[in-house]
Design a protein that fits this description.
- The complex is a heterodimer of chains A (443) and B (303).
- Chain A is of the alpha/beta class and 443 residues long.
- Chain A contains 15 helices and 15 strands.
- In chain A, the strands form 4 sheets. Chain A has a 7-stranded mixed beta sheet, sandwiched between helices.
- The longest helix of chain A has 26 residues.
- With 303 residues, chain B is mainly alpha-helical.
- Helices cover 77% and strands 3% of the residues of chain B.
- Chain B is built from 12 helices and 2 strands; from the N terminus they run ααααββαααααααα.
- Chain B has a two-stranded antiparallel ribbon.
- In chain B, β1 and β2 form a beta hairpin.
- In chain B, α1 packs across α9 and α3 packs antiparallel against α4.
- Chain B is globular.
- Chain B starts with a helix and ends with a helix.
- The chains are: A alpha/beta (443), B mainly alpha (303).
């Protein structure tokens, strides 16, 4: 549209408004089936831009493996736009890969906020991704919803102090925390597998490791488990023989660990070399061992490792955005990607579920204050279960469930090398339990 | 017993560091070039091996025999295209040139392979976690022992080659005084190409060890360079024997530190490095190639 010189600016902009509204109305009517969606809602104020930042490559790549599939599913489901408060918005998802680099994560967030002028930020998977993104959003006044990082690492790791008012205004987080780890671990470790209740605690000197050391170990100790902590190591360590010798000397029979995946691979091979694996009865990993690929690289050392699941195809919950149940989501992923399902699939889906629910609850999704307020009051069921910000342990946080699960060698004839069975459901009895915990042993 | 075990593990780790450092030490000794692309070249070697394994579906031990000739070829190109040209420009130019090569390599590898972490461990079966038990509390990893033996053979072999063979005499002569060497009928250019090819083969073996023992990604080169550099400096610049000792000292320092507290692992390695550096500076023996010169001159004269 061009302006001739004799027209006033005000008149011009009104005419543009009428034109775009007209276009939008036409789109809402008959044109949606005929015209490409993008053209039907070409009006600038009718577009919702959502940033989605996750690690797709680098040491944390396992977390992002299913994200292209989830984003594709979300784009298809949202292709008709979102109707909120009587307006229909075209939804644009802008996904970015942090390459597992926190500095890059922060830069990507700033680019999306300032360059792409997004309306909402979604981010997931580990403090190395979520914390820098949430901090950038907090600084820029951008509503940000995140998941898959123990909430203590997110809340206390970003400067909040226990007992003091919440310092955050724009960032919201839903995830399990130390309490959930403790519940599922205690439920698993008090099962039929008898141990001497001596726990080897291997945690690095990073946000997750320190949260575990300060908050999880005391709960486990109170419950009668003797947690041996040789101290934090630096991520990327080349040798673990000191820690292994320590755990051997203490005759630990349970391992709990929160390492980045390459470190665990190195540690567990060395543990096998030096005979630690032989004395272990329960091997409980977190942050690694979540996905089949991370267990497969361990070869015969990987069978019977337990790792609490934040999502599983047996979850009785579905995705409101895609309309798929948990079982359907897993099946659809396996069909489209050719890979075995993995739990981040459900978590990334739930992030989009919750984000869309917040947009709808806000009534005015382009109003950042209204959107942030809607996040704070959000109570909705997503793929991973209930997300309820009104009853969180601290403001701006909602907790989700963890279910105990164990990797076992799959039955002959299976397409995949490993199966991942739920073994307890202390936190949500609606989730079916598939098998009993088996004691660890090298295959 | 725990200290004895830690000492042994430290020595084995040291063998790995020495293997990582061999190529760096050699190139430094014979050409007085601090090759800042060393770590990136080792990672390049690992990626070459990965590609060979994927294409041919062979074990890394077989793939190695294909990867090493490729690395030798790369060494030739590296020498003629970059080092030879920069050598005439004073000591700073090779430093900057190899730094540039390392940046280039890291980013090319990233562009081709992405940031994903790779490892050969799943391809070498039980060797990646197998061990021999000695008594109750000492276990020797089979892979670490293999790496240690490789480092020993490689460094001793190179040392013998330098001191006992005609080729070694030619390399040393060129290292000490290229002009005098060319007056005696040597072509320093060709000798330097041979030296560079040998260094690159050592880097290739180091890259394979890196991929089997732990994991690698395109930007892993920097960390490899630091440990290799520390091993070279601790052991005495330009001495291949010294590099083995330096690697072992670094490995022991790290493991002893970790036994006191895991926090101290990397710090104690760096502290040993700094202490040795300070002592050497005090004694004035850190001039480039100094160590090599002192040890070589008599044998060159006798030759």
């Amino acid at each position: 549209m061009t302006h001739s010189n004799d027209q006033s600016g005000a008149g011009g902009s009104r005419r543009r408004q009428i034109l775009t509204t007209g276009l939008g109305a036409a789109g809402m009517g008959a044109a949606s089936a005929l015209l490409p969606v993008r053209r039907a809602w070409a009006g600038a104020e009718k577009k919702l831009k959502i940033g989605f930042i996750s690690p797709r490559t680098g040491p944390l790549a396992g977390f992002g493996e299913a994200d292209p599939f989830v984003l594709n599913l979300a784009r298809q489901s949202l292709a008709k736009g979102l109707t909120i408060g009587g307006n229909t918005y075209e939804v644009v998802l802008l996904d970015r890969d942090t390459q597992s680099d926190p500095t890059r994560a922060s830069q990507l967030a700033k680019d999306l906020i300032n360059g792409e002028k997004i309306d909402m930020m979604l981010t997931t998977s580990t403090p190395e991704v979520v914390n820098p993104v949430a901090d950038a959003c907090e600084a820029a006044g951008m509503p940000c919803l995140s998941t898959i990082e123990p909430w203590e690492s997110w809340y206390f790791g970003r400067g909040a102090k226990p007992g003091q008012p919440c310092p955050f205004k724009w960032s919201y987080h839903f995830c399990f925390g130390v309490e959930q780890f403790a519940q599922t671990y205690l439920s698993s470790w008090n099962s039929d597998v008898k141990t001497n209740r001596k726990v080897a605690g291997l945690a690095p000197n990073d946000a997750d490791g320190n949260a575990v050391r300060q908050h999880l170990y005391p709960i486990l100790r109170k419950a009668g488990f003797d947690v041996i902590d040789p101290g934090g190591y630096e991520d990327g360590a080349t040798d673990f023989s000191a820690q292994i010798a320590h755990f051997k000397r203490e005759k630990c029979e349970i391992l709990t660990t929160f390492p980045i995946p390459p470190d665990f691979t190195r540690f567990w091979r060395q543990a096998a070399q030096q005979g630690l694996t032989r004395q272990m009865k329960i091997v409980e990993v977190a942050k690694t061992g979540l996905f089949p690929s991370q267990i497969e690289v361990l070869g015969p050392l990987g069978y019977r490792i337990a790792a609490a699941a934040y999502w599983h195809p047996v979850f009785p919950y579905g995705s409101p955005v895609s309309g798929l149940t948990s079982a359907q989501l897993a099946a659809s992923y396996e069909k489209h990607s050719g890979h075995q399902w993995q739990q981040q699939l459900g978590a990334s889906m739930s992030l989009i579920d919750a984000g869309v629910a917040a947009l709808q609850a806000s009534g005015a999704p382009t109003n950042k204050v209204a959107l942030a307020a809607a996040m704070g009051k959000l109570k909705t069921t997503t793929t991973v279960g209930l997300v309820d910000f009104t009853t969180g342990p601290v403001p701006h946080v909602a907790t989700t469930i963890l279910i105990g699960a164990q990797w076992v060698k799959s039955k002959p004839g299976s397409k995949y090398k490993l199966d991942y069975h739920t073994i307890e459901n202390a936190e949500d009895h609606k989730v079916p339990v598939q098998a009993k915990l088996l004691p660890y042993r090298m295959a | 017993m725990i200290w004895l075990n830690q000492l042994l593990q430290g020595i084995l780790l040291g063998g790995y560091y020495a293997l990582m450092a061999a190529g760096l030490s050699f190139l430094f000794g014979v050409m007085r070039v601090i090759n800042l692309a060393h770590g990136s070249l080792a990672v390049l070697a690992a990626f070459l091996l990965l590609m060979i394994d994927h294409w041919l579906g062979v074990s890394p031990f077989i793939g190695l025999w294909l990867m090493l000739p490729i690395m030798a070829l790369i060494g030739m190109v590296f020498q003629l295209g970059i080092l030879e040209r920069s050598l005439s420009g004073g000591p700073l130019i090779p430093l900057l040139a190899t730094f540039g090569v390392s940046l280039l390599l890291d980013n090319i590898l990233f562009a081709i392979f992405g940031a994903n972490t790779q490892s050969f461990a799943p391809d070498i079966g039980s060797l990646s976690y197998g061990s021999w038990a000695i008594g109750h509390s000492i276990d020797i990893s089979q892979l670490d022992a293999l790496i240690f033996a490789t480092a020993l053979v490689l460094l001793v072999g190179m040392h013998l080659l330098l001191t006992r063979s005609q080729l070694g005499r030619m390399i040393r002569a060129t290292a000490i005084d290229a002009e005098a060497a060319s007056l005696s009928g040597l072509d320093p250019r060709r000798v330097r190409v041979v030296a560079s090819v040998m260094a690159m083969i050592m880097i290739g073996v180091a890259g394979a060890a890196l991929g089997m023992r732990s994991s690698f990604e395109p930007y892993a080169g920097g960390a490899q360079l630091i440990y290799a550099f520390e091993a070279v400096v601790i052991g005495g610049t330009g001495s291949l024997w010294g590099t083995l000792i330096g690697g072992i000292m670094l490995g022991i320092a790290q493991n002893m530190g970790a036994t006191i507290n895991p926090h101290l692992s990397q710090i104690s390695g760096h502290v040993v490095f700094l202490l040795v550096l300070l002592v050497r500076m005090r004694m004035g023996s850190l001039r480039l190639g100094n160590f090599l010169r002192k040890r070589m001159r008599p044998s060159v004269v006798s030759a």
